[in-house]
Design brief:
198 residues; mainly alpha; Helix Hairpins; minor pseudopilin epsh fold; 2 domains; 3 strands; globular
Length: 198
């Protein structure tokens, strides 16, 4: 069964002005669609054809891995955003206090990882194998799905993620994304480890 572009849980203009309709149309509607099309071409007639996308990421390598991981990472990123962000929930808040000291300290560490990451890739909030929250970064298409940890949140650091709205100002992009994070969904991932069939 071919993979298809999921419907966003918000309208393409709903994140504006923090993330413009033009960015959604190009980044989600066209860029992500290209990855999905490439995955469909690469899995056709192979043992990967009937697997869900997350399993393709876990089991593949080379060009298929790169395209499948980029598709999964992008879907996960956009599904983590909302036009009506709420404060961090109590369960996640308690873990942030335990592992980072405060929400402010967590935010600063996340921001610094975004700003200091070299070239393209992703910054992640994960729950590691010891049950602790951690901020990690990955290069290029690498996904945390293949590392045995629980991904809770990711921020896309490829230039196409922010150049339409912010040009080369990655700090401004982080500020916008921070205001759009769906903390309820992040906490649901923490509690249930469900990825809505991604």
């Amino acid at each position: 069964m071919p993979f298809s572009l999921p419907t966003l849980p918000y309208a393409s203009d709903a994140l504006a002005p923090l993330m413009s309709k033009e960015t959604i149309d190009y980044h989600y509607g066209r860029h992500l669609q290209t990855y999905i099309d490439k995955v469909n071409a690469l899995v056709a007639g192979t043992e990967f054809e009937e697997l869900p996308l997350d399993e393709v990421v876990r089991r593949s390598e080379g060009g298929l891995y790169n395209n499948a991981a980029q598709a999964w990472n992008h879907i996960f990123f956009f599904d983590s955003l909302t036009p009506q962000s709420k404060p961090v929930g109590t369960g996640l808040h308690a873990l942030i206090l335990r592992d980072f000291g405060s929400v402010e300290a967590f935010r600063e560490q996340l921001c610094q990882r975004v700003l200091t990451h070299f070239a393209s890739g992703w910054v992640w909030l994960i729950m590691d194998c010891d049950g602790k929250l951690a901020i990690v970064s990955t290069q290029d298409a690498q996904s945390m799905l293949a590392d045995g940890v629980t991904p809770l949140l990711t921020i896309d650091l490829w230039e196409h993620a922010y150049y339409i709205d912010h040009r080369n100002r990655r700090a401004d992009y982080f500020e916008a994304v921070w205001q759009l994070i769906d903390w309820e969904k992040v906490e649901n991932r923490l509690n249930l480890n469900l990825f809505d069939g991604l």
